[in-house]
Structures are given as C-alpha cells and as structure tokens.
C-alpha cells in the first residue's frame, strides 16, 4: 500500500521535500520555525514498528534536521517530539525554540492559536528547509 499522509498533517503543514525515509513538511504557524518528519510508510504509528535500519535512519534525519535548524535559525533550543495523541500516523516534530517565542519556556502545543505564515516568511522557511533537504541528499549520495 502506498504512503498516504494523514489529512490533519496535510491541512496543517506545507510539503518541502521527500527525503530517503521521511517526508519533510513545514508547519503553517508563523510563531515558530517548526518542521515535521513523517516516515513514508503506511500504517506506522510508533517508531518501534519500523525495521531497525529505518528506525536508525529516522533518527538520523531527525538529528540532522535539528542540527541544521539550530545552526540556521538562531534557536536557543531544539524541541523534538513524537506525541501522536491527535494524529496517530508516526510523525516527529522538530521545532526551533527561542526564549522570546510565544510559548517559551512551555511546550508549543496548546499555546495560543496558530498564525498562518505570510508569503515572505513562508517562502523564507521553505527555502531554508529545501536547502537542508538538498544538503542531506548530497551527503547521503557521498556516503553511498
């Protein structure tokens, strides 16, 4: 069965790129630089349901994205979470947090209302994440 993105994830995020394992998406919320990695596998709810090699690849993609976001956003902290209480499809949130953001120091979930990205901010963040995807693919090509 082909990978199908959960409708809530599709509604709340913007497609960035397909990586080796995950689909990379940008959360449509101007308050936070917030990305999601969703393994492109059908009917997976928990990371332990992935084969060991794919589980390792998932966390490599998560760590690489977190490192990239830390380096390029000026974040004070990178938050990583895979809650799945509202959307059971496995997805990992990678969020660049700032001491000055709307939710600091608490979690982003339940902190006010999402503010849709305006055109310029959306394009800037999409471009940043597309650069990450291109760099990651280049690195993976060199490792192969």
From TrEMBL:
Residue ranges of every copy of the HIT domain listed in the record: 36-104
Top-rank taxon: Bacteria
Pfam family, any one: HIT
Molecular function GO labels: catalytic activity
Transmembrane regions: none
Protein name, per record: HIT domain-containing protein
């Amino acid at each position: 069965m082909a990978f199908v993105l959960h409708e809530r994830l599709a509604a709340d995020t913007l497609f960035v790129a397909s990586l080796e394992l995950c689909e990379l998406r940008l959360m449509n919320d101007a308050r936070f630089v917030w990305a999601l990695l969703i393994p492109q596998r059908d009917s997976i709810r928990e990371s332990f349901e992935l084969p060991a090699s794919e589980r390792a690849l998932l966390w490599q993609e998560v760590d690489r994205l977190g490192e990239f976001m830390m380096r390029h956003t000026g974040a004070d902290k990178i938050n990583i979470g895979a809650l799945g209480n509202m959307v059971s499809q496995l997805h990992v949130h990678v969020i660049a947090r700032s001491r000055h953001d709307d939710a600091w120091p608490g979690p982003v979930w339940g902190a006010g209302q999402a503010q849709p990205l305006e055109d310029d901010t959306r394009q800037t963040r999409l471009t940043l994440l597309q650069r990450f995807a291109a760099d990651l693919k280049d690195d993976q090509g060199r490792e192969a």
